[in-house]
Structure formats: C-alpha cells, structure tokens
Amino acid sequence: MNKIPVITSAEQSDQAAKKANLLGMSKDELSAFFVSLGEKPFRATQVMKWIYQFGVTDFFEMTNISKKLQHKLHEVACVVPPTVKYKEFSQDGTRKWVFEVTGGSLVETVLIPADDGKQFGRKTLCISSQVGCALDCSFCSTGKQGFERDLTPSEIIGQLWVANQSYMENVPPTERENRVTNVVMMGMGEPLLNYNPVVAAMSLMLDDHAFGLSKRRVTLSTSGVIPKMYDLAKDIDVALAISLHAPNDELRNELVPINKKYPLKDLIKAAKSYVYDENPRHKKHITIEYVMLAGVNDSDEHAHQLVDLLKDLPSKINLIPFNPFPHAPYGRSSNNRIHAFSHILNQAGFVCTIRQTRGDDIDAACGQLVGQVADRTRRAKKWQESIQKRQSHHE
Ligand code: SAH
Ligand code: SF4
Q1: pLDDT tens-digit series, residues 177-231
Q2: What are φ and ψ of residue 205, in 5° steps?
Q3: Does 61 qualify as catalytic in the annotation?
Q4: Which one of 13, 183, 243, 267 has the lowest number of neighbouring Cβ atoms within 10 Å?
Q5: Measuring from each residue's beta carbon to the nearest atom of ligand 1, which residues come in under 6 Å?
Q6: Quick check: is 108 catalytic?
Q7: How many C-beta neighbours within 10 Å does residue 82 have?
Q8: Whose CA is nearest to atom 3 of ligand 1?
C-alpha cells in the first residue's frame, strides 16, 4: 500500500496498449477526458492532486474516487513517467537521472540542492526540453550532439515528478510532500523551439492542483529565439534567463550562431519588453547567463561592453565557469579572471553571481547536462556487464 510506484513492465505495456497517459495532461484536457467517460469535470483536480502532490500512480490508491471509477480508470488510463535508465545520487546532495524516452533516446535531469544542506531547503531541478539541440552553440556538448526530437509534455513534467518521487520512499501517500522548490529549463535543448509542450509542462508546474510552484521559481532559459519570447510574455508568467555569453554581435555569432538570425539589438529589445510591466510593484528582471571561456569572452574589455549593453535592462548576471567536455575547443577561465570580470560588473551596479560547480563527483554540473549521455550509457552498460561477469564468475 505504501510502496513507491516504480515503472513496471505492466505499466509500460499499459502505454503500449494505448491507455491514455494522464501524466502531462492539462487541467482542461483532463476535465474533457473525465467528461468523455461520463464523469463530472471536477474529477480532474482530484486526480491531479493524487498524481502530482502525493505521487500516486495506482488508481486503486485514490481513495476519494468511487470503486467503479477506479476500475474504469484502470481499464482505460495510466500514469506513466519516462523510464529511469539509471540514476546517481552524489555525496553533496546532487541527484542525476538519465531517462529513456519513447523511441530509446536518452535525456538527463539534474537536481542541485542549496549549500545549507537542510532537508527542506532549496532544491533546484534542471530539466531537459528536447533530445539534443539544433542550435549548435560552440561551447555546448548538447549542441554537438545535434537535434533528435522534441520532448512531450509528459516527458518534460515527468522529470519533475520522478525527482520529487525520489524523496517519497517509504512515506505513506497522504504524508508525501514535493521537495523540489525551483525548476530551471536549462537541461538539454532549446525550450522555446519546443514551445507548446514546454508551456504546457510549465503550466502544470505552476498549477495549484499540480506542483503549485511560484512563478518566480520556474525559469525558462533561452539562447534568444526572439519571436517566441514575445509569445511567452503573453502565454505564461515565469522567470526568464537569456544565455548571452558575448557582449557584441561578432563574438556572439561565433559562440551562439542563432545570433546571426536574431542579433543583440533585437534580443535586448525583446528582453526589455519581457520585463516591462506597467505596475511598478511587479518589478521583474532578466537573468543573464554568461559562460566564462578562457581568452575568448572574459577580458576587462568584454566586461565593459557587457555593462554598456545591459545598462537599461533590469538584469542579474550569472557567470558560469565553462564545463569542459572531450574535444571542447575552449578552457575554463581562471578564478582570478572570473572575479576580476565580476568586479567590473559589480562596480557598475549589477548584481552578479558566480555559479558554483556542484555534483562534480557524478559529472552533473548544470549546463554539462548531456552530450556524453550516450557515451556514459555505453560506459554504464560495460560496467553492468563487468559486474554480471564477475557475479557469474563467483557463482
Ligand atoms: N538552450 C537553452 C537552455 C539549455 S542550455 C539555452 O541555451 O539557454 C542551459 C545553460 O547551460 C545555457 O546558459 C548554456 O549556455 C549553458 N551551457 C551549455 N554548455 C555549457 C558548458 N559546456 N559549460 C557551461 N555552461 C554551459
Ligand atoms: Fe542548444 Fe542551449 Fe546548447 Fe545552445 S547552449 S546548443 S541553445 S542547449
């Protein structure tokens, strides 16, 4: 009764049998689904609470639903998150999952806890939106992988669901609590190029009947797909981060090739429009991400150019030490260089943070999500094979 749902082959076959997967459906879709079964639409919010707040996938555990409806749901529906291919939990509290999504592709999700180590302290989950990415930024291992496919709403929200599940082991359903406090769409892929599924999944993150996260705690990160930034401002209220990485077009064209299509002047204009709000109490800002590449974009001159570029944009700057990967054409800026760069931004009045690299022992530093997933899977397979070999040797 109190067991934690795991993905069993029975559940996998539910999907194969084309049962409706309720995970990832919006409240409206779920209401329509219940109406199609001859039920009242409010069943949707009841079931959403079981799925998202108590992590329950078995309809027979949903105790405020009639036995008859439980049986009906068991026949026609299922709640199936993406399959966990393998997971690693680090000493410092960082957790990483590799999911195998339909069709066999792999995506990564990383959970990074705040330093305070509190059981209920801040826990930020870095979620993927696509398998691979078409934008080919020169410093990004996901980009090097190329684009494979978009993730569905259930594959996106399923990452958050599984991360929360990992804290629910041996806890009775009604005593379970979601522990992930913040979500950043900073895993694999460009979220604004998988727009509808990403907005659908983020709506569930904010929905009080689902995860109920505050809009300031859900952040979408984009390399600057300008038309979709305007759409986003209309469709959903979440925090926005822009992966800038260069303070002038010439350098940005090289590092973030989509800049050739959507140059800096237009990007800053779109960012200003995103934060603009007539009500001064709704003060918003943009997070600017800037990866520190030794000798490429990290000089004092670049910092001064950045100050100039961002002078009229309410923004916080996050400097990200580059995470090297095999055959990467860059190195990480030294700590001294990063601090000198940050000092110039601080002197100009910007709030500037330097991202801590966490989870190094499990290769989970954010932004590094992926790229070598396939490689690592191969390695994991080899490792599993060698364990099996050793075991059979001892038998
Ligand atoms: N496509 C989106 C979101 C995913 S990338 C975007 O580009 O914003 C998430 C963040 O990780 C981005 O700021 C990206 O530039 C950064 N990143 C990618 N590769 C990195 C690396 N090797 N080292 C450090 N940060 C990296
Ligand atoms: Fe795609 Fe973002 Fe990587 Fe660029 S940095 S290739 S946009 S995932």
Answers
A1: 999 999 999 999 999 999 999 999 999 999 999 999 999 999 999 999 999 999 9
A2: -60, -40
A3: no
A4: 13
A5: 139-141, 186, 190, 221-223, 243, 289, 291, 320, 322-323, 367-368
A6: yes
A7: 27
A8: 186
